[in-house]
Batch of 4 targets.
Target 1
Amino acid sequence: MQNWHPSLSKALARLQAFAPRAGKDYARLRNHDFGPDHRDNVSALSPWIRYRILTERDVVAQTLSLHSATAAEKFIQEVFWRTYWKGWLEMRPAVWQHFLAERDQASDRLRQDSDQSALFKQAEQGQTGIAGFDDWARELTDTGYLHNHARMWFASIWIFTLKLPWSLGADFFLRHLLDADPASNTLSWRWVAGLQTRGKTYLARPDNIAKCTDGRFRPCGLAEQAEALDGPEPPPAQAIPQAISQRRADFSGQVLLVTPEDLHPESLIDGRRRPARVLVAVPDAFAPDWPWGEKARAFIDDGVDDTVARLVAMDLPVTRLDSLANEPLQKLAEAHGVQQILTPYAPVGPVADRLAMLERALAAGGIALERVRRDWDERAWPHARRGFFPFRKQIPQLLAKAGLSQ
Ligand SMILES: Cc1cc2nc3c(=O)[nH]c(=O)nc-3n(C[C@H](O)[C@H](O)[C@H](O)COP(=O)(O)OP(=O)(O)OC[C@H]3O[C@@H](n4cnc5c(N)ncnc54)[C@H](O)[C@@H]3O)c2cc1C
């Protein structure tokens, strides 16, 4: 079974092992879920990529060192799905807030409906009697990972067969996935439900499940139709918030605050622009609103340790930060004679919300919190205004700008 240890070295080892299969093999077999002990047909890299222990750029660069862009087209497109979802949500942050509100309302309704509440518990515990669905529920809670196709089947059965609220399913995923991600998770659940691409739903079919699980599961009694759920139109795209672009950021003599949204600071800082101090915030610094489950917390906690160790090895002065209280941060900035703290841009989600609070508190003391956006996101996000199809057309150009064309 795949072991996700949150260190960069383990991530690179998995990337190296998988990269030879990222070409035609991936395109042919990626939709198959052969079970938790057979993950060779997919990368299983998402927990590392999610927190940017491994950057998308490095994943694509390693892939293109072994395959042509045409042979690896499918895999590279999948890597860009994450970028696309993030950019889409960045332009419509209200969709994340709407999900949170809907989840809370659905939880309240559940408390008053004993039948639905019992079904919800059975679904979470993998006791519905539906082949495959129950196994994926247990796999998710046991391992923190599900294959992409299993996520699609699970969400579809949750919504259209069990008729449970989609927002509670999305929340169940967020509480157990190692790669729990506001954009990829919320927007994928919305997509299955027919809320994202209006009217277009995803229906899990027994034949497809049997074929793509190598006959492990052929569930009975699944919904035969998937009528799109009702919901408001997504809001129009708004401007992506301002940030300093990676190319222009100068870290020399500055204080850099690293958060769990981006645990690879060394690729942001180049040797010539060394900060005076790097602060690495642990998940507890985001309490009491830390939203992900225990597995993700433990993963990130260890990921922070690994990040700290790598920075120490680079001779950078590092502090592990257990709290985001503004006063100590302000004193630290003053001690270094700076009037700003730099931080990698955190996309829409709880970390970004917590940073916005910190920004207001620091501003009152005359210290600015400045966000630095990676070139990868800066170039790609503006193309995520509409669907993935027009976004996908930009990929060759985005690769060229990232210095990754062949
Ligand atoms: C209902 C649902 C919920 C999801 N929730 C999350 C989530 O919370 N966090 C998360 O990281 N992904 C989520 N995904 C996307 C996708 O399922 C996972 O990223 C993928 O399964 C990770 O496995 P892998 O690394 O083996 O992927 P591979 O197939 O090896 O793909 C390579 C990389 O491409 C990216 N990727 C692949 N497929 C997608 C996709 N559909 N959307 C976005 N990025 C993708 C990931 O970074 C992945 O590591 C969700 C998908 C669905 C259908």
Target 2
Amino acid sequence: MIGAIEAGGTKMICAVGSSWREVRDAEKFVVPTTTPDETMAKIMDWFVAQHRSTPLAAIGVASFGPIDFSTDSIARATPKEAWRGVSWRDAIRAHLDDIAIGFDTDTNAAGLAEWCWGAAANCRVAVYVTVGTGIGGGLIIEGEPVHGLLHPEFGHMFVPRQRDDRFEGTCPTHGDCLEGLACGLAIRERWSGSDHPFPPEHAAWELESDYLALAMVNIIMIASPQIIVLGGGVMAVEGLLGKVRMKTRDLIGGYIAKDELTSDIDSYLVRPGLNTSSGVVGAFALGARAADVMP
Ligand SMILES: [Zn+2]
């Protein structure tokens, strides 16, 4: 059995299973993300009880970032102050000292899950981007989540500000980086006078698709992925993905002469094959790899 933790900024989703399908279909244990002490205590109590009934070989953690691989912790740059420097490895080891631990960003993990069992299967180079409360991305090359200097942080790339957009941006570090201009929080703040949810014809989605298409072009030009999987709550808005596809194709302008970027763009910018389960299934994949029970 493998434990899986999708550690998000607002809630943590926990599950156990012996296969990705079991984890996907399992009843989840969900804990709100409050203080590290309170949140970790609830999570570890639950896993210790699971471990007593059926021993776990590993736990995989797919965490919000940025993260520090040297200590399997949340990096000090995180805007969530209470979580700065909090180590998942230490928290797990304090309760379960005999199991393997897999650790990566939530988006690298989701990308790995999509590569293993979802929309990015059989792609040598695949990208997963989530557009939700924040924006993040994972890059998978030959089945390995990319760890370089640190890990990719697609949400914090810069995109040209669109004409007439005077919104200062929500990123605490950069202001108007991609996340600052286009994450769910930015949409809410920029259009704070409008009633939610915005209808598909609302100007918010035209601007949102402008920024996301610019981001897609940057990703395509730098990483040359064979597929880009787009998840997260914002992407579920009706019509948004269609706009992003059209604008990405127009911005590329035929420069990369591949069907995927012209006639077949609908099969290139795609929704997750695992729907909303990519994160927790990705955590399972990290755990299964740590336990050496997965390709
Ligand atoms: Zn930023």
Target 3
Amino acid sequence: MTVPLRVGVIGAGVGEMHLAGYSKLPRVEIAALAGLDDDRVRRVAAEYRVPQTFREYTDLLAAPNIDAVSVCLPNALHLPVTVAALKAGKHVLVEKPLARTAIEGRAMVEAARAHDRILMISFNHRYRGDVQWVKQYIESGALGRIYYAKAHWMRRAGIPRLGSWFVNKEQAGGGPLVDLGVHILDIAMYLMGEPRATAVSANTYAEFGPRGQKNWDMRNEASTERMPYEVEDLATAFVRLEGGATLLLEASWATHSTAGDDFGVTLYGTEGGVELMVRNYTHENTVRVFHDVAGAPTDTAPKIRKQGGHDAVVERFVAAVLDGAPQVPSAEDGLRRAEIIDACYRSAAEGHEVAV
Ligand SMILES: NC(=O)c1ccc[n+]([C@@H]2O[C@H](COP(=O)([O-])OP(=O)(O)OC[C@H]3O[C@@H](n4cnc5c(N)ncnc54)[C@H](O)[C@@H]3O)[C@@H](O)[C@H]2O)c1
């Protein structure tokens, strides 16, 4: 692949974050943006000086001289658009979740192999400074063997958009578990060293979304879209991992609780523990470390610099394409998360523990 790498972004919502990332990289030329929401596409294209815009993704893929694309579309479109892009010879960075189900995700991974193209996934929160610090700390051996973890992403009133594709089973594949749980599941599995999940016991609830009250919506405003609310607004799961460790996972869009828009992971190790607690996307004072020092329980709070996010993922994608750098976060990571999430929905439907 030669420099500059010419990229297209498909979808103008979180796609804007991808454009922001690409615009900071000197070896990248932003070539095009596609989206159906004309006003937003126009505004975003002007901000990042995108030379060409399209409505349909098919037109962007047919445009000459585009080497790589970001797929930033509703979840139901991840499979068809990613496969179409790979077939057209593009490398792809797809937004999370990889797809609505593991079956769809597997088809994407296989298409990338068949067409010999790079497929990576945007697990942007993994590249936060605090998550990377905890990863390094774990790799130093300081926690010993991690035998238990708790991971959560809980919102008090944060349904993304009532009436939109987000709340529709067919369009999204699921609710907060697919939307937020996938991020924190990714962080937990990454920090624990990618243990294989063996079994899951889970449940889901839809207590607020179906009532359609706008005070449960993230933006507190009625959407013009009219998709029926068909997904959960809380999911809770107990995941058994190879080697005996377990993981408790929670994800909500709406709860009567102290949560704002909070996520975190607590890791319990034989030699130490770590708590990552991010309230309302803060980067300050998010990590606490627990050890026994000379017989006394001791807590420390490292000062960690803010970094990461979409910029980091986009940079890694470009380095993978141009320099052959490791393809991480990989589509396979996304597929393993999808397999666990599929098992969660299966367990919730059947009312008992299921194998992953
Ligand atoms: N990593 C993160 O932090 C993060 C944050 C938000 C969203 N996401 C993910 O990004 C994806 C998109 O979410 P969003 O919040 O941007 O949604 P959104 O609804 O705000 O935007 C979707 C975009 O897709 C476009 N689109 C839909 N159908 C299209 C088509 N046929 N051809 C061309 N464009 C089309 C829409 O016009 C719009 O520009 C989802 O998979 C979501 O899970 C990730």
Target 4
Amino acid sequence: MSDIMLEIKNLHVNVADKEILKGVNLTIKKGEVHAIMGRNGSGKSTLSYALTGKEGYEITKGEILLDGENILEMEPNERAVAGLFLAFQYPIEIPGVTTMTFLKAAMNAQRKAKGQEELSTPDFMRAVKKTAQELDIDSSMLKRPLNVGFSGGEKKRAEILQMALLKPKMCIFDETDSGLDIDALKIVAKGVNALRNENRSMLIITHYQRLLNYIVPDIVHVFSDGKIVKTGDKELALELEKQGYSKFDEVS
Ligand SMILES: Nc1ncnc2c1ncn2[C@@H]1O[C@H](COP(=O)(O)OP(=O)(O)O)[C@@H](O)[C@H]1O
Ligand SMILES: [Mg+2]
């Protein structure tokens, strides 16, 4: 069995007929946490959407393998079943649907796609309560409609809970720290760190170094004009914070 979780080779992506990603190469091993940093507009979100298969993101060249499987031929929901999870920058609100109902539907959709039996309500309740407790999440939140009126920290808690229940093997966090205060940031970091293990990989996309004080990445990449222009260890993030991105524009 290979030790590689995600392999992106020479990925080119057009959005509205304009080339945004211009040859991304990225290999993430099982258990590794990578960070991508880059200025606004450099194409970071385009990369996360291309990975999850969002409509309108046209792959013109390249390959994406998830645990050895070519995901470019899969629909977005099939990619999720294959173990890909994207945490949104702006979580969606679902009025009228409680967080509990949403989580149950998400879990059962995944089970169904894998040919497993649906969870009964009591079994689901037990699983969700146990997981919430492990992650220090107050279960009263579960009775409220998903994300409606949630604080930034509560939205993140709901998302971490969803991740813990779905057990994805490749998690992508796109600017998950934007707009969060330090307490909310710590909640995210705690949840993410609790879910780190040797069979799960993570890609943390962020504009600021701040989050990386709490989620320490194994590898840091600098993104500029649609591709990775430099790769290093966690020190690279500190260097970027100090010196800014302009230095890296010249090499791209
Ligand atoms: N739906 C879209 N239509 C046209 N251009 C887009 C669209 N989405 C993103 N872009 C352009 O793609 C580039 C990269 O955007 P994005 O991936 O959001 O960057 P980042 O996440 O690094 O801030 C930007 O120049 C942006 O204007
Ligand atoms: Mg973005």
